Amino acid sequence: MSGIIDFFVDNANTLVEYITTYPFVRYALIVGVLIALCSSLLGVTLVLKRFSFIGDGLSHVAFGAMAMATVIGITDNMIFTMPVTIICAILLLRTGQNTKIKGDAAVAMISVGALAIGYLLMNIFSSSNNLSGDVCSTLFGSTSILTLSVFEVWLCVALSVVVVILFILFYNKIFAVTFDENFAKATGVHSEFYNLLIAVVIAVIIVLAMNLVGSLLISALVIFPALSAMRVFKSFKSVTICSAIFSVSCALLGIVISILFDTPVGSTIVAVDIIAFCAFYLIGLLSGGKAK
Amino acid sequence: MAQIICKDLSLGYDSNVIVKNLNFTVNAGDYLCIVGENGSGKSTLMRTLLSLQKAISGKLEFSDGLTSDKLGYLPQQTFIQRDFPASVWEIVLSGRCSKEGFKPFYSKEDKAIAMQNIKKMEIENLKNRCYRELSGGQQQRVLLARALCATTKALLLDEPVSGLDPMLTNQMYELINNLNKKEKITIIMISHDIESALKYATHILHIGKEIVFGTKEDYLNSKVGKSFLSNWEGGLQ
Ligand SMILES: Nc1ncnc2c1ncn2[C@@H]1O[C@H](COP(=O)(O)OP(=O)(O)OP(=O)(O)O)[C@@H](O)[C@H]1O
Ligand SMILES: [Mg+2]
Hints:
The complex is a heterodimer of chains A (292) and B (237). Chain A has 292 residues and is mainly alpha-helical. Chain A is globular and about 65 Å long. Chain A contains 14 helices and no strands. The longest helix of chain A has 26 residues, at 100-125. With 237 residues, chain B is an alpha/beta fold. Chain B is 37% helix and 25% strand. Chain B has helices at residues 42-49, 88-94, 108-120, 136-150, 166-182, 194-200, 216-221, 223-236, and strands at 2-13, 16-27, 31-36, 57-62, 71-74, 154-158, 186-190, 203-207, 212-215. In chain B, the strands form 2 sheets. A 6-stranded mixed sheet of chain B has the order 5-6-7-3-8-9, with helices on both faces. A 3-stranded antiparallel sheet of chain B has the order 2-1-4, with helices on one face. Chain A binds chain B through residues 44, 48, 168-173, 175-176, 179-180, 182-189, 229-230, 233-239, 289, 292, and chain B through 50-52, 67-73, 75, 78, 80-81, 83-87, 89-91, 93-95, 97-98, 100, 104-106, 128-130, 133, 146, 150, 156. The complex binds adenosine-5'-triphosphate and magnesium ion (MG). Adenosine-5'-triphosphate (ATP) is lined by residues 13, 18, 36, 38-44, 76 of chain B. Magnesium ion (MG) binds at residues 42-43, 76, 158 of chain B.
């Protein structure tokens, strides 16, 4: 028993020491929490509007853009990745609305294309001698959150704040458009504008989240909190609040574990998400869907 | 005053014409019933009126201050994702969404109106329940309450009483009639219940091989009306 307590006390001490000594640990915690919060907010809308595939496609686009930025030699590559991803998000949304099946295919085409071009560019132009390591860290985000520049930290903070404020301001509209777009449109809600807004915000979140978990694991950050919360809660508001709390707690725990035990940040967070999802699944089964 | 004017309207999907040469006018305060067989294009017409789809040709005009944010709408079928987490209250309140313009939050008045319509539809006890766990008739009532929240000038209903029990069906008709007579809200309703259609409506639009539009009396005297009615009565016996 005392062994377990010692283990926790030791680790807590190490953690406090890290936080007080190394600024990059503080940055990682702050940015991690904000990104987790943002990505969970729109999760419900994404899952329900069947937009989750767009999220997945966009993350590959962001990967391609990042590779390109590296090749061109832009150091703060978010400046380049962000606009490219936003433009792709708008394009994908457009094609997705015209014809359903073609939209799906378009997403697959763009995302796989971006992935391939990205890797190709890195392969041809990369000066680094650890190419597979580079690729791996863009895909799985192994260390990038611990190597953020101060500028990137501030950009992350500012964008996250903007995303959260937009979400709160447009919460009722987002609900109406997600729940029944036809009714919203028929009664004079500017659903096209809100769809556009949702697409842009998704793009921003994906580029932000790429720093935390890498481009392959972004969808996990968006989908797990929403699906978990939907197991237990039955109203839009409670699901939204629950997924925000879920996401932030899992991200915090994941980052702390990865710092203490030197595991890759992204996959650790997703692993915590999976465990928490299982817990929520069980709670959902046990409560028999009675909770509100 | 004419609120909706349709001239030589052709409806359909892509270039596939389903209804041709549609001419009719809806005045403020009218109670228009749209009747016709399954698949004749009634829902298509309503979706066109709501600008959810484009007319193939012809002219559709709104006037007398009617704009889409003054409409309420009850769809024939609402395709809602199986897992959607939404409470009855959230859904009814969302009917007020367009009334807020770009204002972010619902006002006290919005909430009061939502509550009033929940009471009208007798779903107070369901207020905090999850929508997808309700019965079909209960869901219909929730969507009706939402439509009532949205309307200030005109209410478009696509088979509003399907799935309601006989008691509530009558209450529903009375309620719609009250909205029409007391609050002067224009009603456009698709219905297969021709008896009630004739009881309450002021105008009838029959869609089918032949299109007939006119007041209730005109319709009763028309050839199409007579044959449709006799078929309908024949079907009953
Ligand atoms: N999305 C669609 N794409 C193509 N054709 C459609 C579509 N929806 C309906 N149709 C066709 O349009 C015609 C009219 O359909 P509509 O739904 O307007 O009929 P309706 O009069 O409302 O029938 P009901 O009484 O069964 O509700 C039908 O022949 C139908 O097959
Ligand atoms: Mg129909």
